[in-house]
Amino acid sequence: MLGRNHVIVGLGLYLAADYALGTGGPRSDLVNCLTAAALGSLTPDLDSPHSYLGRRLWPVSRTVSAWARHRGPTHSLLACLLVGLGVAAGSKMYPGWSPYFIAFAIGYVSHLLADWCTTEGVPLLWPNNKRFRSPLNFRTGGMVENLFSLALGSGLGYWFYQSFR
Questions:
Q1: Which terminus of the chain is more solvent-facing, meaning fewer CB atoms within 10 Å of its CB: N or C?
Q2: pTM given for the model
Q3: What is the pLDDT of residues 86-138, one digit of tens each?
Q4: Which tens digit of pLDDT belongs to each residue from 41-93?
Q5: How far apart are CA 37 and CA 16, in angstroms?
Q6: 10, 40 in Cβ contact below 8 A?
Q7: Which ranges of 52-129 would DSSP assign to H, the alpha helix?
Q8: Which residues contact 143 (CB under 8 A, 6 or more apart)?
Q9: Residues 144, 138: contact at Cβ < 8 Å?
Q10: Residues 104 and 87: beta-carbon distance below 8 Å
Q11: DSSP three-state, residue 38
Q12: Cα(12)–Cα(6) distance, integer angstroms
């Protein structure tokens, strides 16, 4: 999935989780949480120097890509576990930042879910290289991905319009 579409999916999943849990904090928190979710949704692609985040954090991205190929360890359940441990540790050290850490983790997981829906799939059980993919999958950058992201992005835009007017 393309970076811009990962952000849309990450924001959508965060807002769905926020709505389902009924947190509904102050709007400033929502903007910060959405930013954290967007950042989390791009982070797994740090293993590619050609990704949106990889081009901006190229020293980190080149280091990661030197030992891990794209859609390798950063796209696995092990990476999700490490992010979860980071969220737990960060929330313990900085309790006021917990919502942002959680939003980042939701964005991270959204990235894996979105890539799971592509024909390339994801190696959830890394270091086992078997790739898992959704039974209904689409080609990265293809028309289905773009139409899905357009529909989800339009829905998010409508939600923002209704929420902030």
A1: C
A2: 0.90
A3: 999 999 999 999 999 999 999 999 999 999 999 999 999 999 989 999 998 99
A4: 999 999 999 999 889 999 998 998 888 888 889 999 999 999 999 999 999 99
A5: 12
A6: yes
A7: 52-56, 58-67, 77-93, 98-116
A8: none
A9: yes
A10: yes
A11: helix
A12: 10
Can you give the residue range of the structural domain that contains 108?
3-164
Q: Which residue has tokens 């989390």?
A: 40
Token pair 């579409």: residue = 5
Rounded CA separation 13/7 (Å)? 10
Token reading at 157: 């835009």
- Residue found by looking up tokens 């891990």 in the block: 68
Residue 90 near residue 68, CB atoms below 8 Å: no
Using the Cα atoms of residue 155, residue 77, residue 67 and residue 116 in order, give the sign of their dihedral. Answer: negative
Q: Which two tokens stand for residue 116?
A: 């799971």
